[in-house]
Amino acid sequence: MISNKIQLGCAPIAWTNDDMPELGSENTFEQCISEMALAGYTGTEIGNKYPKNPKVLKEYLELRNLKVASAWFSAFLTTKPFEETKKEFIKHRDFLHAMGAKVIVVAEQGHSIQGKIKEPVFENKPYFTEQEWDKLTKGLESLGELAHEKGMEIVYHHHMGTGVQTTEEIDRLMQNTDPDKVKLLFDTGHLVFSGEDPMEIFNKYQSRIQHIHFKDIREKVAKEVKGKKDSFLTAVKKGTFTVPGDGMIDFKPIMEAILKSEYEGWIIVEAEQDPAKANPYKYALKARKYIKEISGI
């Protein structure tokens, strides 16, 4: 069963890490998108090296038959006045709309430790108060309404080191937001690293999943990170994440469930690694071949 509704993209984080610019600082924007296209992908998310002018970016991407799938937006709904997040969100939304994207990746960064190199990612994970949960859910619904003004949707990115990481937290977010206003991003790597069951999350929320990140986990490294109480950034540097087909996750049942659900949208290969240790083109190609093998796409 081959779906023509699914598009495959690749994230630039394998070439240059926006949270740790020293990883891949030598890799240019043009090298990144050229190698994505060469590896057989048709879409990309946005990295810090990408041109900020939609007209300029479009020309670069069209030469390589690439489209923009989405881009990350950091919300601070739990820690800052809503108006601050709203102002930044509208700018982000309008840029993505100009690039033809249909979804906006949103992650709450209030109290997040994902960018703190010395904070143990498991032990120091933040938890929201009742008041913060209220601010988050209401704020996300408002962002969803703003996205609808441009015919777009927000997809919430559960993420290691943040207040929405575990199954329980994803459940609470989904149960307390309007399904029409807040959709979900399904990220295999973050779920497995956190200790969650990706199939359970997918089966439960498939009607709300409108964007997918495929990343794999090196089990041995993940265990070491947990045992040594490493930070999220240290986990990335050590190589916890890798591409589908290179780690512990069996993507075959996941892909079968995605195809069966008649999912329509992007699957983005995203594995933040040190490009000096893991050649981005080689790994992008490896993932592309693996996805072809298990799905025919």
TrEMBL record:
In short, the EC number is 4.2.1.44
Q: Could you tell me which pathway this protein works in? A: Polyol metabolism; myo-inositol degradation into acetyl-CoA; acetyl-CoA from myo-inositol: step 2/7
GO MF assignments:
manganese ion binding; myo-inosose-2 dehydratase activity
Q: Classify the source by domain of life.
A: Bacteria
Q: Has the keyword Lyase been applied to this entry?
A: yes
Which parts of the sequence belong to the Xylose isomerase-like TIM barrel domain?
36-291
What is catalyzed by this enzyme? scyllo-inosose = 3D-3,5/4-trihydroxycyclohexane-1,2-dione + H2O
Which keywords has UniProt assigned to this entry?
A: Cobalt, Lyase, Manganese
**Which top EC class is given?**
lyase
Pfam families, A to Z: AP_endonuc_2 (PF01261)
One of the GO BP terms on file = inositol catabolic process
Q: Which family does it belong to?
A: Belongs to the IolE/MocC family.
Q: Under which name does UniProt file this protein?
A: Inosose dehydratase
Which organism was this protein described from?
A: Garciella nitratireducens DSM 15102
